[in-house]
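Dear H.,

Thanks for agreeing to be a second pair of eyes. The structure we're designing against is below in token form, covering all 295 positions.
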């Protein structure tokens, strides 16, 4: 009987011990959670204190120093020293002007190379759109750059006057050499122009603001782009491509007629001898000529 009484007592003791262990475990977990909260609170306070101690004047000086860096002294336009490229702040207007600088530079030098005439020292502004289309096989619409009117072509060149100028006798010339080591200079010129434009805008000079056409406005402006063909008249609403295509077709017709002309000046027809040899009436000859692809 004594042993039977000891067994319930042992069970009760074991139960008490287990409950005590559970309480100790819960207390320990609660202590860990409390420690985590305390650490989080300390980190938050340290962060707030760090923010309060920020030297905003120092940061401002660093930004000003960064903005005042001479772009022409930078060796790598893809890294200005902070891991950022020189063109990090370019907008679509800056990219458009960068492309315009590069294309007009190449166009000016290519014209001089291909012309071979010492008396023709460059492209006249009035002929700029024609030669641009001739070399690049695409149109150039000044309206897309926010300039229009009689002086649109000159104002277009003025947008990139740091690299392209109009010199006596009023022809377009590039200020850069035809043989460049690399094309970084165009990025540097564009960044310098962007900074100067921002300085003028900050000073209240609204004339420095660009008025580029965007989206549908650009497409609409391009559809009505004026065409100037040296020595040729252009119909209303006719694009550069349409005018050039028409001229090419006319040239092909003239070449075909010259090739089809025999030694005696009589057109050689693919179906046989001249119709006059068979006594064909003149009206029928004209009708037959009209049906030929070269006629």
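And this is the sequence the design step returned. I haven't edited it by hand at all.
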């Amino acid at each position: 009987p004594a042993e039977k009484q000891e067994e319930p007592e042992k069970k009760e003791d074991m139960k008490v011990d287990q409950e005590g262990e559970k309480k100790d475990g819960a207390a320990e977990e609660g202590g860990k959670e409390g420690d985590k909260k305390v650490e989080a609170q300390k980190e938050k306070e340290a962060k707030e204190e760090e923010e309060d101690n920020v030297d905003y004047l120092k940061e401002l000086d660093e930004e000003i120093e960064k903005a005042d860096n001479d772009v022409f002294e930078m060796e790598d336009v893809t890294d200005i020293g902070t891991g950022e490229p020189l063109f990090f702040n370019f907008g679509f207007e800056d990219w458009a002007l960068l492309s315009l600088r590069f294309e007009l530079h190449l166009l000016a030098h290519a014209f001089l190379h291909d012309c071979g005439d010492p008396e023709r020292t460059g492209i006249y502004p009035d002929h700029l759109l024609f030669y641009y289309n001739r070399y690049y096989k695409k149109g150039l619409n000044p309206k897309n750059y926010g300039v229009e009117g009689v002086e649109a072509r000159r104002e277009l060149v003025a947008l990139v006057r740091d690299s392209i100028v109009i010199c006596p006798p009023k022809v377009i010339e590039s200020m850069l050499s035809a043989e460049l080591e690399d094309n970084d200079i165009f990025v540097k010129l564009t960044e310098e122009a962007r900074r100067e434009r921002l300085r003028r805008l900050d000073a209240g000079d609204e004339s420095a603001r660009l008025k580029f056409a965007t989206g549908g406005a650009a497409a609409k402006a391009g559809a009505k782009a004026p065409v100037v063909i040296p020595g040729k008249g252009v119909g209303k609403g006719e694009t550069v491509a349409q005018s050039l295509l028409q001229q090419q077709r006319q040239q092909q017709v003239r070449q075909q007629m010259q090739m089809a002309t025999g030694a005696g000046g009589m057109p050689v027809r693919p179906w046989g001898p001249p119709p006059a040899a068979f006594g064909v009436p003149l009206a029928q000859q004209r009708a037959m000529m009209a049906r030929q692809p070269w006629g």
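Two observations from my side: The chain has nine helices and two strands. Residues 2-52 form the longest helix (51 residues).

Warmly,
E.
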